[in-house]
Amino acid sequence: MTIAESAALYTEQLKNITPEQQIDRCLNDLNAGKAKLQKMSISDRIKLVQRCLDDMIAVAKEWELAGCDAKGLQPGTELGSEEIQTGPLATSRYLRLLMQSLADIEKHGTPQLPGEMVTGPDGHLRVQVVPTRGLYDSIAFQGFKAHVWQQKGVTKENITSHMAEYYRNGRKDTGIAIVLGAGNVSSIAPVDAFGKIFHEGKTVLLKMNPVNEYLGPIFEKAFRSLIEANLLRIVYGGADVGTYALQHQLVDEAHITGSILSHDTIVWGPPGPDRDRRKAENRPLLTKTITSELGNVSPWIVVPGPYTDKELWFQARNLASSIANNASFNCVATKVVITWKGWSQRQKFVELVNKALHEIPPRKAYYPGAKDRWEKFTHDKPSGCPAGTLPWRMVPDVDPKSESIHFVEENFVCVFVETAIEAANEIDFMSKATQFANDDLRGTLGCTIMIHPAIRKRPDGEAAFQRALADLRYGSIGVNYWSALSYAMMSPPWGGYPGADLKDPVSGIGFVHNTYLFDKPLKTVIAGPLTQPLKPLWFAGNKAAYKVSQKVVDLYHRPSPFKLPGLLISALGG
Questions:
Q1: Taking residues 314-342, what's their average pLDDT?
Q2: pTM of the full predicted structure?
Q3: What is the pLDDT of residues 59-110, one digit of tens each?
Q4: What is the DSSP secondary structure assignment for residue 22, as one 8-state letter?
Q5: What percentage of residues in the chain have a pLDDT greater than 90?
Q6: Which of 270, 312, 316 is nearest to 540 (CA)?
Q7: HEC string for 146-195
Q8: Residue 292 backbone dihedrals phi, psi, to 5 degrees
Q9: Hey, is 385 helix, strand or coil?
Q10: Is 300 in a helix, a strand, or coil?
Q11: Residue 163 and residue 101: Cα distance in Å, rounded?
């Protein structure tokens, strides 16, 4: 049976019955699939993941075109390449890394780590996860390293006893999970589902978000092997469908990607006295295990230093790309740029960021409610851009001591602010910027720090920088690059800083991705050079992005050193 025939049969079977009957039928299938998953050998799991990768590659073009059509992007262009990067590319990287870890578990009992392990000044073990093995990261991401900081108690000696818990515990039946897919970046929903299946041993009911449910039929084809094995089912519909599934007796847990408003409505009910009373009495409506990823008012901390014009311009484009990516409909899009009030280059940097944004065409505001949110956060009406799009907008010099809405509510639209902090010097600034990011901004998902190497070469500068890294309460920290790179790398865990609960989930509970299957991650720090000779793939305006993105997908599908020369030649055109 072909991919298309298999998907058509699956879809046909769900026709002519109510959404509730569909869910009942899907959950009964998934309940039967639990026993099969429990008995499945690791070798067979690897084969299943390989089939997912092969079938996904077969529909990758359809996936790309569907995303471009929905988001108003021209296929085959640098902007259109985003739908490759955030869809098939990210997913293929995850599946390839997952296969490596499963092969390691089969041979060694635990994933084999690719790099160094060091204990930092704060006592936390830092485990290198980028560059990874087998995907030529040391060439494709030259100069980048990512370390996953472990929670206290995890050491070099016992690290393997804090990895791959499901496999260490004998691959027991762990139930059925419902994954409420995100409506923005297309790799989120399938990768979250894979994590539940292959990391935790759960069968998965994936409910597509209405914003991007057009991807569901493509996922049915791409991941038909999981559907055929009764490990995955995909359903559609609005809040009523989600509520029925969440409350179903066969569902054991839920994973939610979205806003904190959606999370609280699901867990505690609609806003009002009843919700307040339930929170006060700790009586959630949903009593199942819940994990989540809920967004962030994402800071970009600019540590003052002796930047050249070239370095400032590179970093301005770097920051602008974090705003423009996916039209700023990202849970970790930069929202607050934190500068030092006494920095002599502050105004120049702000102007360069605006210049970089001015060079990026406005994007279709495809996410529901975007225009209203834009007006709410700018107190203005959008103008000067094509119909259906919204202009990039920086609000400069917002008082850090104010109770600005920009600090406490994620706007999920292409608006961000700059705020300048009083400090005695660079060292004092790092401390105060860290405190501001922790205490005054909502969320714990991702934070970026821009720092000049000259500051780090100073003993007092490096010590202050390490204190800042240790003190920042964020799940992912990017050094000189947008923290979303941690998401794209897939090997680091992705999620809010540990310690949240249902009453105050902040940026969410738990981690996804995490292809080395760490049980107790604290945060990820991913660092790269201040500038690069070649424009990074994800930078806005990279003219080679489309060709390079296609070649990287091919590399991840079938890794080979013979593919690197063509990849590098294409990258030179950026």
A1: 97
A2: 0.96
A3: 999 999 999 999 999 999 999 999 999 999 999 999 999 999 999 999 999 9
A4: H
A5: 92
A6: 316
A7: EEEEECCCCCCCCHHHHECHHHHCCCCCCCEEEEECCCCCCCHHHHHHHH
A8: -165, 160
A9: coil
A10: strand
A11: 11
**For the chain, domain boundaries:** 3-111+163-258, 298-527
d(CA 349, CA 360): 17
Strand-pair category, 476-479 with 393-395: unpaired
Q: Is 390 left (phi over 0), alpha (psi -120 to 50) or beta?
A: beta
Alpha carbon of residue 115 to chain centroid: 23
Question: Among 3.30.565.10, 3.40.50.300, 3.40.309.10, 3.40.50.620, what is the CATH number of 298-527?
Answer: 3.40.309.10
Burial label, 9 (beta-carbon count in 10 A; 0-12, 13-18, 19+): middle
pLDDT for the residue 13:
64
The closest alpha carbon to 484, from 143, 86, 67, belongs to 86
**pLDDT tens, residue by residue, 402-458:** 999 999 999 999 999 999 999 999 999 999 999 999 999 999 999 999 999 999 999
**Spatial CA neighbour of 95 closest among 552, 550, 513, 520:** 513
Annotation: CATH topology of 3-111+163-258: Aldehyde Dehydrogenase; Chain A, domain 1 (3.40.605)
pLDDT at residue 140 in the model: 80
Q: What is the pLDDT of residue 131?
A: 96
Mean pLDDT of the chain: 95
> How many residues are there in the chain?
574
**DSSP per position, 197-266:** IIIT--EEEEEPPGGGGGGHHHHHHHTHHHHHTTSEEEE---HHHHHHHHH-TT--EEEEES-HHHHHHH
User: 509 and 292 in contact (C-beta within 8 Å)?
Assistant: yes
pLDDT value, residue 6? 58
